[in-house]
């Protein structure tokens, strides 16, 4: 059995992986897609149910308008073309958590198609195609846990039955596990910005199935794929893909054939296992849902939804770089959430010099966070605190050195800047000329050699004296003033 490292090298040399992802995202509507039951997570089992979502005979579905709007908004954010007419279809299969015996989904006429997501690949930016975005209802949940003997009993919770989902299907455009990870990160970010889902993977609000095949480099025809189901983190999806690619390469290298099948990932072992083969695959016998009309999202409605489209992360980052002169990297960090980006922008706007806020985030905040192993959202210094400190430096009230010390205290005591500034008695950098002149006299007297060099024409020696004076004043002196007084004295 070879390790990941050497097989992945071999993979890259002769075989090309091809990956396509199917992502399910739960929409944040208050009620279910075809009934008025609550979608609240964590309610006692089987309390958010009614004849419609339980699939009682004769109960009729009524489409949730908000679910359509959220799905359309997400599809727009993913650069899809919205189909004015889409069709709900019955996907028939038997499973204990599916009381109706079919799931209402969309099949050959989905809500939206032809989208894309931009990802940062090793060779620059690349577009990953999105085949389709469609609306469907979720199934219930089988609970195998919490029983004395988990192998004996299974319980069903139907609270989730009928919760609205969108399924986002990618083209087989992804070529590495890293790229899959990046695609998922960007996808989640975009969905979060639209606020149509909380994308909480622990609660199952975002679920991903990964399809993967390998082919000899240069071959156009796709290889036989396997599908890895229900992996519950992006990191595990990446790991599962790495394993599965090397497994497939080994099979093909040793003259074998890949069987089309569904596999499960065991994250403890870092391996995938066969769950069911193509022969056992469901034949869903899709047909149009007779209880629902075709879904019509006409131009007028689309225009209304377009108006609610927020600025998306990629565009926001480009604008922050341009407007505030921050680096691409910092723009990435500052846009990890919409709320952080908003905080940064309002702080930068409120400050006397927005650029200084950006510089402080970049120059003073990031490094301290990194040292402490904190995410920016856990920063003791808020964006507002950064803005306050920026204004104090801007007005000359505190020096850069003082700011550094105050920031250190913020991190030591885990308090925001204004609080620390007050605690420290609102220190001011010294602009007291007489006191400074005294220090300068002492420093100059104590360093005759440097003074000689300066007077001999080595003007850069001024830096040495400024440094000494700053040190002697414990960083409290106002540097421009020190410079001015020193120049006078030395000349
Ligand atoms: P299925 O009918 O088995 O569900 P689809 O054609 O609907 O297959 O594709 C499902 C997902 O699998 C899509 O994301 C698609 O890009 C991806 N996919 C399809 N064929 C391959 C392949 N040969 N290798 C890797 N991914 C593939
Ligand atoms: Mg499919
Ligand atoms: Zn219901």
What does it look like?
- By secondary structure, this protein is an alpha+beta fold.
- The protein folds into three domains: 5-301, no CATH class; 313-423, no CATH class; 433-490, Orthogonal Bundle (Arc Repressor Mutant, subunit A).
- Helix content is 41%, strand content 20%.
- The strands form four sheets. A nine-stranded mixed β-sheet has the order 2-6-7-10-1-11-12-13-14.
- β12, α4 (234-253) and β13 form a beta-alpha-beta unit.
- The N and C termini lie far apart (77 Å).
- The site of adenosine-5'-diphosphate (ADP) has 15 residues, from β1, β10 and β11.
- Zinc ion binds next to loops.
Q: How do the helices and strands line up, and which of them pair or pack?
A:
Elements: H1 4-14, E1 15-26, H2 65-77, E2 81-82, E3 85-86, E4 88-92, E5 102-106, E6 112-121, E7 124-137, E8 141-143, E9 155-157, E10 164-170, H3 177-194, E11 206-216, E12 226-231, H4 234-253, E13 261-266, E14 271-277, E15 287-288, E16 295-296, H5 299-307, H6 313-324, H7 328-334, H8 338-350, H9 354-372, H10 383-394, H11 400-413, H12 417-423, H13 433-446, H14 448-455, H15 462-472, H16 479-490
Parallel strand pairs: 12-13
Antiparallel strand pairs: 1-10, 1-11, 2-6, 3-16, 4-5, 4-15, 6-7, 7-10, 8-9, 11-12, 13-14
Helix pairs in contact: 1-4, 3-4, 6-7, 8-9, 8-10, 9-10, 11-12, 13-15, 13-16, 15-16
Zinc ion binds next to loops.
């Amino acid at each position: 059995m070879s390790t990941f490292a050497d097989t992945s090298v071999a993979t890259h040399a002769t075989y090309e992986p091809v990956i396509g992802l199917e992502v399910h995202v739960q929409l944040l509507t208050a009620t279910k897609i075809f009934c008025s039951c609550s979608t609240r997570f964590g309610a006692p089992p089987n309390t958010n149910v009614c004849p419609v979502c339980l699939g009682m005979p004769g109960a009729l579905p009524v489409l949730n308008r908000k679910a359509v709007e959220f799905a359309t908004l997400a599809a727009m954010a993913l650069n899809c073309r919205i189909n004015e007419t889409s069709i709900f279809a019955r996907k028939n299969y038997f499973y204990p958590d599916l009381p109706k015996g079919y799931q209402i989904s969309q099949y050959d006429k989905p809500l939206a198609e032809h989208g894309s997501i931009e990802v940062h690949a090793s060779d620059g930016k690349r577009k990953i195609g999105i085949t389709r975005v469609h609306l469907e209802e979720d199934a219930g949940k089988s609970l195998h846990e919490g029983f004395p003997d988990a192998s004996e009993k299974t319980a069903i919770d139907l609270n989730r039955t009928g919760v609205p989902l969108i399924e986002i299907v990618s083209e087989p455009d992804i070529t590495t596990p890293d790229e899959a990870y990046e695609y998922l990160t960007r996808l989640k970010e975009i969905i979060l910005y639209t606020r149509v889902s909380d994308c909480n993977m622990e609660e199952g609000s975002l679920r991903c199935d990964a399809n993967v095949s390998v082919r000899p480099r240069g071959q156009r025809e796709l290889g036989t794929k396997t599908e890895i189901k229900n992996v519950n983190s992006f990191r595990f999806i990446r790991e599962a893909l790495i394993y599965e690619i090397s497994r497939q390469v080994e099979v093909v290298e040793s003259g074998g054939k890949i069987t089309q099948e569904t596999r499960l990932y065991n994250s403890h072992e870092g391996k995938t296992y066969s769950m069911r083969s193509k022969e056992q695959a469901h034949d869903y016998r899709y047909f149009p849902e007779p209880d629902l009309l075709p879904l019509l999202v006409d131009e007028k409605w689309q225009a209304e939804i377009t108006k609610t489209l927020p600025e998306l992360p990629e565009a926001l980052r480009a604008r922050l770089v341009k407007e505030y002169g921050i680096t691409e990297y910092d723009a990435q960090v500052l846009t990890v959430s919409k709320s952080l980006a908003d905080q940064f922008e309002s702080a930068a706007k409120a400050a006397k010099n927005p650029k200084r806020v950006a510089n402080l985030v970049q120059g003073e905040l990031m490094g301290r966070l990194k040292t402490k192993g904190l995410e920016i959202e856990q920063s003791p210094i808020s964006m507002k605190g950064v803005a306050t400190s920026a204004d104090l430096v801007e007005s000359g009230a505190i020096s850069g050195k003082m700011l550094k010390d105050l920031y250190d205290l913020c991190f030591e005591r885990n308090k925001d800047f204004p609080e620390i500034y007050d605690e420290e008695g609102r220190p001011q950098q010294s602009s007291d000329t007489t006191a400074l002149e005294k220090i300068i006299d002492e420093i100059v007297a104590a360093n005759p050699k440097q003074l000689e060099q300066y007077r001999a024409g080595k003007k850069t020696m001024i830096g040495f004296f400024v440094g000494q004076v700053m040190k002697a004043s414990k960083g409290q002196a106002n540097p421009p003033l020190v410079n001015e007084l020193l120049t006078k004295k030395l000349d």
